[in-house]
Design a protein that fits this description.
Layout (H helix, E strand, L loop, with lengths): L9 H21 L5 H8 L3 H7 L3 H26 L2 H20 L8 H28 L8 H8 L8 H19 L2
Helix pairs in contact: 1-2, 1-4, 2-3, 4-5, 4-6, 5-6, 6-7
Amino acid sequence: MSLARPRPSRVDAMRNRRLIVEVARGMLAESGAVSMNTVAKLAGVGPATVYRHFPTREALILAVYRHDVQRLLDAVDDEIGGHEPLDAFRVWFRRLAAYVRLKRGLGEALHTAAMQDAIDETYAPITAAVGRLLDACVAAGSMRPGLDPADVLVLMSGLWQVGTGEPGTDQGDRLLELAIRGLHA
């Protein structure tokens, strides 16, 4: 009879990883100060499990960033499928702006070479997502053809420069509508 604990199944390991990322994501939304031990406690796993998946705090922050960007990318098709193209454009850019404003609060946690590499690697997929939104709008006749997705992304960056709360949301919506008027067919 063996007293050794059975190794967790791959499914358990993947579930733990997802849970750790979600817990860390919630903590990072509130503050850039994330303790690996607190993440473990809130996720209901041991610190060794957290460190097995993410050997450093930076590795955990990078995983949260990549996870969030993938969620944004995945949302493009959902938005296009669930809304008129111009409304999908609005909804997705509001989501992107909220995400960037949230990450801006992490300050120093995002200013590392590895993080800059992650930002650089996600630029092309984000720009491609903007291109898909633009293509849908052009096909619907709500935006003019020939718009460069990278230019539109820079134009829309004003959305994540607004303040917080209702005044910031209102200003962001006004800026969004101003930009859309400039992109119309």
